[in-house]
Write a structure and sequence with these properties.
8-stranded parallel beta sheet, globular, alpha/beta, about 15% strand, TIM Barrel
Length: about 400
């Protein structure tokens, strides 16, 4: 079936979600109208280093993202879901009975609660608990483990959320650092033929598992997609060994996420980078529209004033909408990084003093006006806007804010 990502303004009465007996939660909502339209603009939550309630950090930040007006969320699912030394995790404690992605989503209360919240789109770093290293090759045993867990997780999502209008995008963190096994932009010596082939085989195994589960599992009005993430696109355009150049063309992934720090400061470079990624992405039937999205961008307060964070973010959003990205996701709701001197680096929409930043209010206002546009369009035209109609309107809204 051909799918236009983000289109189909499906409204259902979602079962009201309660933030549970976890302290300073938002009041339970008895019935909240669920909006499945993709407004594209949003944010994410990974390892926040502060909080203001007694909820789990995952629940607290998810509530904050909903309160800002977003109907999408991005976070991590993995065997490292709980707090460890140097990492805060989604929740504070490990449950020894959880051994797979399905069990984490089904049996861990905070993860289950957030997945049940009325978000339409979930962009997830989804790492299987088997988590085999592929840098020296991805053999049959590792592939079988990966396939089995991804298949079962996809089956679970399709079954549990059938009829809800939700979409799940399963992927991973910045692939070029992972391919290198290094955070050095020039460290290409680590990119061995075995690592390249291992990553190709790993991605294609995951893709096959998701497609097979979708084929085998009865479901309606729910979808699961698979993505890889690239981050050294500027280097790729210079001919370096990268995921874009050496892995992506040999995969069958549905989407590509771009962690865009290398070009986000310059709209023209960002636009060129998106074109380049798309040129390396093999065509695929069944998905209409662009298949490259911005999975990360952000401007830390240690190098940017609050006003600069806002202005630069507007430029990224404008470029992403102009190009047609299905998502453009700010890093992140609460900061996750502290520098060597113990100072917050300031990747935030809400700072460590619980102060909403100008970039937060920009997101909030844009999302509110975008919702009004879609509702007014539907009343006037008796249909939902196409994504192209929506993104042009969202650009206009942004320009007049």
């Amino acid at each position: 079936m051909k799918t236009q990502i983000g289109i189909g303004l499906l409204f259902v009465l979602a079962i009201g979600f309660s933030c549970g007996a976890q302290g300073d939660a938002a009041p339970p909502r008895q019935a909240e109208r669920f909006d499945a339209f993709n407004y594209a603009v949003g944010t994410q939550t990974f390892d926040p280093v502060y909080q203001f309630t007694t909820n789990s950090k995952l629940v607290e930040t998810a509530v904050a993202i909903r309160e800002m007006g977003a109907n999408g969320i991005k976070f991590k699912l993995s065997r490292d879901y709980f707090a460890k030394p140097g990492k805060t995790g989604n929740v504070s404690e490990k449950n020894p009975a959880i051994h797979s992605l399905t069990e984490l989503a089904r049996d861990e209360p905070s993860h289950r609660q957030v997945l049940d919240m009325p978000f339409a789109n979930f962009v997830l770093w989804a790492y299987t608990f088997s988590d085999h290293d592929w840098h020296h090759g991805f053999g049959k045993g590792a592939a079988d483990d990966e396939y089995r867990e991804m298949y079962e997780f996809t089956k679970y999502l399709l079954t549990k959320f059938s009829g809800t209008g939700k979409s799940f995008y399963l992927g991973h963190w910045e692939g070029d650092w992972w391919l290198r096994g290094s955070g050095n932009v020039k460290d290409e010596a680590r990119v061995s033929p075995a690592a390249i082939q291992g990553m190709i085989d790993w991605l294609n195994t995951r893709q096959r598992a998701i497609e097979d589960a979708k084929r085998d599992t009865p479901h309606e009005r729910v979808n699961v997609w698979h993505y890889t993430e690239v981050n050294l696109v500027k280097r790729a355009m210079e001919g370096a060994k990268t995921v874009c150049n050496d892995v992506l063309p040999k995969t069958r992934v549905d989407f590509v996420s771009y962690s865009s720090y290398d070009t986000a400061q310059n709209p023209n470079e960002l636009h060129r980078a998106l074109d380049f990624i798309e040129s390396k992405l093999p065509p695929k039937d069944g998905i209409a529209g662009r298949r490259v999205f911005i999975g990360e961008y952000g401007f830390p307060s240690i190098r940017n004033s609050p006003q600069q964070q806002d202005e630069k973010s507007r430029a990224v959003i404008r470029t992403a909408l102009d190009w047609g990205c299905p998502f453009v996701l700010y890093w992140e709701m609460f900061n996750n990084e502290i520098d060597d001197h113990g100072n917050q680096r300031g990747f935030w929409l809400i700072n460590d003093r619980n102060e909403k930043q100008p970039v937060y209010f920009m997101h909030q206002k844009l999302l509110a006006q975008a919702r009004s546009f879609v509702a007014d369009f539907e009343r006037r035209e008796h249909r939902q806007p196409t994504y192209d109609e929506y993104r042009k309107a969202a650009q206009s809204i942004l320009d007049h804010m």
